[in-house]
């Protein structure tokens, strides 16, 4: 390579990255409908893109049709009521806002009444869900009045050992 070619390639301006608005569309938005079956010489004439003979060449076949065979929905036994799948994916499952006892120790003052609303205001939990569930991880030394939907055994024992009370709502 000569020095002149090196200079011309280095002097070429750098191109910026392509932006989304600059990418050309692959197809126009208002594309004209292809009229098929207009003579032998036409692009989609004669068989009109349906192949040669057969049921699908002559008429449309509904979705799920199995050629006269007993269809799948009739081969399977009938099931009524709540399905196991609905139970497994948690249609009826409750979602609680969970907080540990150690977190209450760090965020609440002595003698405070702890509710789901006060924890949302303090930024400890994001949303109420179906209520508050207090878990027993951590230590608690302050007497607190905690009002929640559910307490674990260890959480209730730690709250009462610290001189507070655990109230179910």
Index terms:
169 residues; alpha/beta; 3-stranded parallel beta sheet
Care to describe what's here?
With 169 residues, the protein is of the alpha/beta class. The protein has seven helices and six strands. The chain has helices spanning 3-11, 55-58, 72-75, 84-88, 101-107, 116-122, 153-161, and strands at residues 97-100, 113-114, 132-135, 145-148, 150-151, 165-168. Strands 1-3-5 form a three-stranded parallel β-sheet. The protein has a three-stranded parallel β-sheet with strand order 2-4-6. The longest helix has 9 residues, at 3-11. The radius of gyration is 35 Å and the shape is elongated. It starts with a helix and ends with a strand. The model has no long low-confidence stretch (mean pLDDT 85).
């Amino acid at each position: 390579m000569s020095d002149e070619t090196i200079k011309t390639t280095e002097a070429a301006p750098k191109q910026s990255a392509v932006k989304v608005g600059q990418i050309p569309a692959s197809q126009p938005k208002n594309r004209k409908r292809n009229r098929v079956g207009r003579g032998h010489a036409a692009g989609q004439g004669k068989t009109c893109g349906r192949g040669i003979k057969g049921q699908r060449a002559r008429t449309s076949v509904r979705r799920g049709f199995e050629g006269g065979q007993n269809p799948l929905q009739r081969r399977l036994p009938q099931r009524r009521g709540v399905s196991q799948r609905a139970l497994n994916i948690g249609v009826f499952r409750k979602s609680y806002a969970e907080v540990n006892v150690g977190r209450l120790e760090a965020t609440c003052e002595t003698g405070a009444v702890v509710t789901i609303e006060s924890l949302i205001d303090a930024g400890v939990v994001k949303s109420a869900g179906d209520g508050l569930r207090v878990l027993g991880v951590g230590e608690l030394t302050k007497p607190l009045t905690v009002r929640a939907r559910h307490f674990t055994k260890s959480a209730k024992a730690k709250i009462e050992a610290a001189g507070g009370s655990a109230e179910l709502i």
